[in-house]
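Lab notebook, page 48
Experiment: co-folding of the full assembly
Goal: obtain a model of how the components sit together before planning crosslinking
Operator: M.T.
Materials (sequences as entered):
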Amino acid sequence: MTVGPPAREVPSSDEGGGWRSWGVTAIFLVPAAVFLIVWIVYPTVYTIIRSFFGRDGFNNFVGIDNFKAIFTTSVLTTAIKNNAIWLGVVPALVTAIGLIFAVLTERIRWSVAFKTAVFMPMAISLFATGVIWRLMDQKDPNKGTLNAVIGVVHDAFSPPGPLSNAAPSTPSIVGSPQTGLVLKTPIAPGKVVRLGLTAIPPEDVPSGAKQAVQPPPKPGEIDGVVWRDFKPGGGVPGKVEKGELALPNVTVNLRDSSGKTVQSATTDDKGDFAFKDVKGSGYKVAIGADTFRQPFAGVDWLGSQLITPSIIIAYIWVWAGFAMVVIAAGLAAIPRETLEAARTDGGSEWQVFRRVTVPLLAPVLSVVFITMLINVLKVFDIVLSVAPGSTQTDANVIALAMWRTSFGGVNDFGLGSAIAVFLFVLVIPVLALNVRRFRREV
Amino acid sequence: MSKHRLIAAALLAATVAALVGVSTAGGARHATTISVMAVWTGAEQKSFEAVLAGFQKTNSGVKVKYTSGGDQMPTVLATAVQGGNPPDVAILAQPGLMKDFAKKGALKPLSFVTSTLKANFAPVWSQLGQVNGKQYGVIWKGANKSTVWYNVPAFKAAGVKPPANWPALIKAASTLKASGTNPYSIGGADGWTLTDLFENIYLRSAGPAKYDQLSTHKIKWTDPSVKTALKYMAQIIGNSGDIAGGTSGALQLDFPTSVSQVFASPSKAAMVFEGDFVAGVITSSTKAKPVSGFNVFGFPAIGKSGTVVVGGGDTAVMFKDNPATRALIKYLASPEAGTIWAKRGGFSSPNKKVPASAYPDPITRVTATALAKAPVFRFDMSDLQPASFGGTVGQGEFKIFQDFLKNPKNVNGIAASLESSAAKAYAKGK
Amino acid sequence: MAEVAAQQPIVVPDPSDTVAARIIRIAGKLPVNLFLAAIGLVWLVPTIGLFLSSLLAPNDFNSKGWWQIISKPSVATWANYSNLWNSTDIPHSLVTTAEIAIGGTVFPILVAALAGYAFAWLEFPGRDWLFVVVIGLLVVPLQMALIPMFSLYNKLGIFDTVISLVLFHTAFGLPFAIFLLRNFFIGIPKDILESARIDGASEVRIFSRLILPLGLPAIASLAIFQFLWTWNDLLVALTFARNTQPVTVAIYTNLRQFGSNIDIIAPASFLSLVIPLAVFFAFQRYFVQGLLAGSVK
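Observation: model returned without errors.
Model output:
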């Protein structure tokens, strides 16, 4: 049966016919009709008309100004750009991940458990998902799970230095914590150098540190002291004063004029170090970058740069299970013989997958892809709950922009209607697809 | 057959009845319950609920249901009023909002409370609750926003004294930094903390006259005085290393956390700029003790500004007029209501009958009386502006000052976008 | 495991050979198993993290992540939950959400079952065209209805009530429900209906005695979907029910001060997802069936 002209004869299987048959049909259809007309059809017409009027209501016809505003207001263009990113990335990624999971679960015995775990987020609201991922995405590696994991890896490869917060106390020390700190003036033997560091929290001072003492000069040696150049009130920078602590166990390097390290020494509990048997001149004293290496500060997942990718990750976490289950069902429907035949023909697993499995799955994959297209166009709650207030504008999407414009403070129903219409126009191609599929099926 | 039709019909009827029952039950609740909406959440919400509990003790027939509007309250309320379903009583943090609602005719006049106001409040506070000479609001909670809260042990360890003027503040910050403590904690995820900081600087650097002009958009935000104030502000927020968590950390930090991290142990910063309500957050979420653990100093003077105070007031208004709501308004105007919250901390009452002894510690006593004694007092500027510019999350001032925190060098660009946003908001308001 | 044990006594001509073969087979599958185990863990951790976070005292939250709850002499506490129960609106919000979800499930299914039957088995002019219209309505974004219904609800005086949300969810649940049920009903063997009609049963009786019982699997899937959808909704509730406050809205108002309200946000979020998860685990089969039938949406 196809959807043809509706004017076929009305078969009156019911002998009573006439009004009674009509009455029965009405009982069945009228409730649905009322809901659909009052809550969907009427509002759709209303919103389309409303979109041509301004903020103040129906006495304020503005033509297509609202639609122009969609493409000229920066908040809204950001939303459109973000939604474009969502459209470009999410449906493809979700379909691909779902396909991979579906294929791989066929090879394990505990596939039911796996599928349940991955599918479970489907039951959780996108809003609560947002809360969950906002917790995961905290910047402080002590709080955010993602950064904690990255931090473990990061610190294993480059452990933080003992004095990661330190800075030079006077301009006579140059360089930066990234390259190491170097005393500006070249030194000859018989001199004493003072390497004052500041901005060191008391708890960073190694235990066992005593009052810093500036060592006396010795011939043939370069001596010096490394200390926390701070006492309450600040003190005089560059001078070793009473009440200022030594920094023990700091490695100090002696570099020759070419910049090569010729000697290394470690400070004692008075902060003192000595390079013995030094000849010539033009030496520079330095503390290597290792000492100042920063601990992992955390990726700024919720900052303006990464906020959209972060939300997308959370979103994929929810929908991958959907794709997996639908594709797995499609996979189960493929006759085993087809695959076996391809294998016995000498195809490798990969070739069988690409040449046979994927083409056979094409209809299922397209269903998943199209479903995700629509979902992504309407994405709303998860953005609202993952993004903190300061980056919500950076993470804006069309559906959220519609709500914020209409109900979130601006309260411009004209522009809000226009955004809703814009959203509607975007999903119409999918509507056409659905209707066509239905015609084919019936 | 008719039996089954009956069953079907009965089923339908039952469902309908159940649903209608649900909705009318919701309606019936209103008879004995009055709803109150205010911005407060967290510790402040708990304190306000204690105040409401005091009301219910003396008015046992009335149940008060508190709903927090959060900082989107202007929107929430506007929507509810538009929807014909406002709360019975609301406490507004924005003086402009009361005017808007009064003009729309949404508020009920409070003539019944005039004598109480006269007895309990200085005239200036009653006047702030009037629109065109008619009483619509009771300002029952004041706020001194010209305060800086500091971690006493951190100041001691760095050998720093509370600064009295701007250069001393900058010097103190660098000494604190040298001692290994981040000087500032900034709750940048809430835009209003940043506007409050700006307003304190502006009132001091530009003076009260300019402040009034800028509040009403008589001068533009591109005015040199604004840029000067922004440059002062950049001395605070300009160095990411001076801020706990750096700039990006500050942008994700909400206000209560920005306070608690200063006074928690280990502490993450030495100072936090915000109003007297900080004390309530400190006592409820950290173990720091007044004077030995935390203390307060007035926002430092700039040039010859002297002691000036930026502040706010929370205005109780009435959307529905009945004996229960009248009783609640009268209660809020009484010293009893103020005393309950005063005892819990984080509260300054403009009610002169609230005894100084009600404040739990010497610190609160100082901030509360400073509010009354200040030679120059100005309302928080962002509260005086159209909500779409001065009071809406994610846009206007809140958003632009967050951009400024992100890029503190962009003084001219920030001034320009403030101006264009303000111009739009004022054009729509008229 | 049981399967392996059962096989052993039968196929053991040369034990060393089978063992070796099995080791190779298992080793070959080891990467896949490990990979999927890691993935499965990644999918479970966030939810577990939320639960454990909800057990952290507010002071601990400022310095600790949920994983630190396990190591130390446990710092876990139920204080957040008891506080949530005694001194916040969250329990009331959960009840409100339940009211909305139940109403928003029963109504659309009832209405859709009626219409679905008509589209499947009653003859009337324009039937197919009307059904195409219903399918067309399937994709209308509900954003199209927010503004007009906002105004209409105000005029009707049902703004910010449970019933206004139930009716809204009913309408927007209908197209999919009608589509699904019609397709299911049409698969019911025609003979059963014909013989009932010949016996003189009325359409109403056929509907209530035959169609509803036979359609139960589809109705169950649909009910689960609709329940989860209405339970989890934020957009509609945020627009029409700021004071009525279902749980999503209640959490939302706390969300602005994420760091400091986490002692409310985390346990409330967890409670809000316990019920949908329970529904999901109890009726997983129907859920998947509905999903497969409905993935056309």
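Interpretation: Residues 1-13 of chain C have pLDDT under 50 and may be disordered.
Next step: discuss with group before ordering constructs.
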